[in-house]
Write a structure and sequence with these properties.
The complex is a heterodimer of chains A (306) and B (526).
Chain A: H1 2-35, E1 38-39, E2 48-49, H2 53-62, H3 71-100, H4 106-114, H5 121-131, H6 138-145, H7 168-194, H8 198-206, H9 211-222, H10 224-240, H11 243-248, H12 260-270, H13 274-298
Antiparallel strand pairs in A: 1-2
Chain B: H1 2-23, H2 40-53, E1 59-60, H3 74-77, E2 79-80, H4 91-98, E3 106-110, H5 118-130, E4 136-139, H6 144-154, E5 160-162, H7 168-177, H8 185-188, H9 201-204, H10 209-213, E6 227-236, H11 237-243, H12 253-265, E7 269-271, H13 282-293, H14 295-302, H15 312-326, H16 339-347, E8 351-357, H17 360-363, E9 374-377, E10 393-395, E11 401-403, H18 409-419, H19 422-432, E12 435-436, H20 450-462, H21 471-474, H22 476-490, H23 496-512
Parallel strand pairs in B: 3-4, 3-5, 7-8
Antiparallel strand pairs in B: 1-2, 5-11, 6-8, 6-9, 6-10, 6-12
Helix pairs in contact in B: 1-2, 2-4, 5-18, 13-14, 13-15, 22-23
Classes of the chains: A mainly alpha (306), B alpha/beta (526).
Chain lengths: 306, 526
């Protein structure tokens, strides 16, 4: 009887979100999987079943010896961004640790770092395309005004080479994604660090541990769960990156900036190869899932209870 | 079926009534002036006249032979299939085919673009005035293709409009295959609205406009042109006058390149461009390929002939484009600029040339300095080129006008007929500052700018020799090779040979892929 009463209370709360989730997440996902087995141009109900053709085509493009379709190049950009995500995480952790020690103006720093998170990706992209404009952008104007004319380069150039074979524009994307993602990671870390009981830190200090030692031997193990979660966010974020590149580079497909999701978008919305595009996202979904599971398992440690 | 019977019944009764009325009038009534709105009874009277003229005429889908095409509206299945192409269909006969205005609204769904919706509403008002009782619903937005996609899948298609499917001409070709559009061939022979008796719609469209609008498809007329636009190179007139440089429109390509060097020596960047959209440089490359290699070479490219991209004249043209970049003739930083930023460099007098189309004047209107003067020229022809030196890249203005395979396709065609009215042409020239795709598009408009006039002159001087490449629309994978590599190609990071190799490979893949429908180009001589 009690059990039934409990469900009467739970169902009204769960049902609306379950309904929304089913309509806007579950159904499109299942439909996407279904479409990936068809040849469909998305303009009529005319769909031709092609079995695994789209997946085979994707594999062929991916393994083409000359990378004629640039799929490996796109994935290398995703990886490049993932490296930037790792840097962001390291920086966010440092900032969170410093702020958790409540230096002067801690609140101001917290708000300042978190601020980009209230902006949409589109707003961030537009903002930075202005700031990095080669003619009237803030960065180049400052550089010119202090006599560093030679450093006033086109920051969003996809022609100018920078180290590792990536273009300067892609480095700018990495930097902007760091700027945009830092605050969110920092808040997660900060909340986690502030939850650590103060007596554990004090005990370590009394035992003679340095601040660095406390950070690596007490703080890190105690927020390990958060680090793991943040890393999974980073894996998902790096693979799903789309909007920043799409807006910064004016929606133009470009082999020097595009990520795998840009390729998906081009196939779906420009080429109208909906079946093939669906196959791409199905594979991305599987890879993201495996990547997340791998990250989760790889970073599994004994949970520290306190 | 019941609907048809009722319509037939109405036609017969109207015919009888009209016969009685006509018998009491003069034997022949003069054809009403097309510009004057005929009253409803005129149309009613015209209907039986047409029926009388072709009592036993075969009815069906027009043009005949489109067996795969599935018309949704009954009116599309009842067109005179015996109609001989080119034979005039008078306005009265056309009105008889149209019948009474539909009870529902005629849906005009137009992409909301730089031209605005003023002219769309203007044409709608013309239609409502011309056909009392008709009601046109005009709507659209800047991303109309997203709003419309589910409706297209569902077969709920608007009657007339523009850019329902994103992705350029290739996407429109897909729309044709998926029965989104209705063929408008019958409209071409209908008397044009307001252009004087006996002139068909096809007579008032400029040369090449119909072919250009139909995306290279020749089985039917699937779309109609909206604007006349010429692509070319804009130059800064005042700068040229100040330095005593010759009119670049009179030079050969070789002289033009020498002039670029001279401009550079004067401390001015010869070129700026829309760096984030390197594809804009195709505006220079495509005509140069044509003028260097000739019509046959362009046909070979479009027809996927092996080695077409390795033609020495094609390679020469590609090398010339790279020279512009290798010689340091590009404004520093332009590679990272958007189209408007790159064009602004030109407007600010910091570069002598910019490749663009006639839309640029309007696009840059708000940031054009007071008194700035520019003119459009075609791509200079090489001295020993094989193509017609007068030819220019003239287009119908991107995605063209289409009639939907929906509820009222004939009314969609009637809307298009009114689009080409002289009144609308004048509206375009005066209020939009662009050319409607009709012969004599100015219609007495007086406030024509120097830049617009230079575009008109360029179109005129081409004398109908318009440069067209279709491979991008027909085979997107080849177009993508350019899209992916254009920036690298311009800056010499991809050599001409590498580019040609990639294009040859893409062409080979298309050739060997049986799932890709192949097209054949036959207009292979100048």
């Amino acid at each position: 009887m009690l059990r039934r009463e409990k469900w009467k209370l739970i169902i009204p709360f769960v049902l609306p979100s379950l309904l929304l989730f089913s309509v806007f997440v579950m159904y499109p996902s299942i439909r996407g999987l279904y479409i990936s087995f068809f040849h469909w141009k998305g303009l009529s109900k005319n769909m031709k079943f092609v079995g695994f053709y789209n997946f085979v085509k994707l594999w062929k493009e991916l393994t083409d010896p000359e990378d004629f379709y640039h799929l490996r190049l796109y994935l290398s950009h995703n990886l490049f961004l993932f490296v930037f995500s790792l840097l962001t995480i390291a920086l966010a952790l440092t900032v969170a640790y410093v702020i958790s020690n409540k230096p002067k103006g801690a609140n101001l720093f917290r708000v300042t770092y978190f601020f980009p998170n209230v902006l949409s990706t589109a707003a961030i992209a537009v903002l930075w395309s202005m700031v990095l404009n080669p003619s009237f952008g803030l960065v180049n104007n400052i550089l010119r005004s202090i006599g560093l004319e030679e450093f006033a380069i086109p920051w969003l150039s996809l022609q100018k080479d920078w180290p590792l074979g990536f273009k300067v524009g892609l480095y700018s994307v990495g930097f902007i994604s760091m700027w945009g993602g830092l605050g969110w990671y920092m808040i997660l870390f900060l909340a986690s660090i502030q939850n650590i009981p103060q007596e554990l830190i004090e005990a370590a200090m009394i035992d003679g541990a340095t601040k660095a030692r406390v950070f690596f031997s007490v703080t890190i193990p105690l927020i390990w769960e958060t680090i793991r979660t943040v890393l999974i966010f980073a894996v998902i974020g790096a693979l799903n990156q789309f909007a920043l590149v799409y807006i910064l580079f004016e929606q133009q497909p470009n082999k020097h900036s595009d990520m795998i999701m840009n390729y998906y978008y081009w196939q779906a919305f420009t080429q109208r190869n909906w079946g093939y595009a669906a196959a791409i996202v199905v594979v991305i979904f599987v890879v993201t899932l495996l990547g997340s599971i791998f990250t989760f398992r790889f970073m599994e440690r004994e949970t520290v209870q306190y | 079926m019941a609907k048809m019977k009722r319509r037939d019944f109405l036609r017969v009764t109207t015919a009888v009534a009209a016969g009685v009325i006509l018998s009491s009038c003069k034997p022949k009534t003069p054809t009403p002036e097309p510009t004057k709105a005929p009253a409803q009874p005129t149309k009613a009277a015209a209907q039986p006249t047409k029926e009388a003229a072709k009592p036993a005429g075969k009815r069906g889908v027009y043009p005949p032979g489109l067996d795969w095409f599935k018309p949704r509206a009954e009116s599309l299945k009842n067109l005179p299939v015996d109609h001989k192409p080119g034979e005039l269909i008078t306005q009265e006969e056309w009105y008889a085919l149209l019948g009474d205005p539909p009870k529902e609204e005629i849906e005009a769904a137009f992409w909301l673009e730089g031209y605005g919706h003023g002219w769309v509403k203007f044409v709608a008002s013309l239609l409502e005035k011309e056909h009392p009782g008709a009601k046109v619903k005009v709507w659209g937005d800047p991303r109309i293709w997203e709003t419309l996609q589910p409706r297209l899948v569902d077969g709920d298609i608007p009657d007339v409009g523009r850019l329902w499917i994103k992705g350029g001409e290739q996407a429109m070709i897909q729309g044709v295959k998926d029965n989104v559009y209705a063929p408008v061939d019958i409209l071409l022979d209908v008397e044009a609205y307001g252009w004087g008796e006996g002139k068909r719609v096809r007579d008032i469209i400029p040369a090449g406009g119909l072919e250009g609008a139909s995306m290279g498809l020749t089985d039917a007329q699937w779309a109609m042109p909206l604007t006349q636009n010429a692509n070319g190179i804009y130059y800064n007139v005042a700068m040229f006058e100040e330095h005593g440089w010759p009119d670049p429109g009179t030079l050969t390509w070789e002289e033009f390149m020498d002039l670029c060097a001279e401009i550079k020596k004067a401390g001015i960047a010869p070129w700026t461009y829309q760096g984030k959209y390197p594809g804009y440089f195709n505006i220079v490359l495509r005509p140069l390929i044509y003028k260097s290699a000739g019509a046959k070479a362009v046909c070979d490219i479009d027809n996927l002939v092996e080695g077409a991209w390795k033609n020495p004249d094609v390679l020469w043209a590609m090398e010339q484009i790279q020279l512009i970049f290798k010689n340091g003739w590009i404004f520093p930083g332009a590679e990272a600029m958007s189209h408007t930023e790159g064009q602004q460099v030109f407007m600010d007098g910091k570069a002598a040339f910019v490749p663009c189309g006639m839309w640029m004047e309007r696009e840059m209107e708000e940031t054009t300095p007071e008194g700035f003067r520019m003119k459009l020229i075609g791509i200079p022809a090489p001295k020993n080129g094989k193509g017609n030196p007068k030819a220019a890249e003239v287009s119908e203005g991107g995605p063209a006008l289409t009639v939907g395979n929906g509820k009222h396709p004939l009314w969609g065609m009637e809307y298009l007929r009114l689009v080409y009215s002289p009144d609308n042409a004048k509206y375009w020239a005066e209020k939009i500052g662009a050319l409607l795709a009709v012969k004599d598009p100015l219609q007495g408009a007086t406030n024509v700018s120097e830049a617009l006039q230079s575009g008109i002159d360029l179109i005129k001087s081409a004398e109908g020799h318009y440069i067209k490449f279709w491979y991008g629309a027909w085979y997107p994978t080849i177009g993508k090779v350019w899209g992916d590599n254009m920036g690298d190609f311009l800056w010499g990071r991809v050599s001409v040979e590498e580019m040609a190799d990639m294009l040859e490979r893409a062409a080979r893949e298309v050739r060997e892929d049986p799932t890709i429908e192949k097209h054949k180009r036959t207009d292979c001589s100048d």
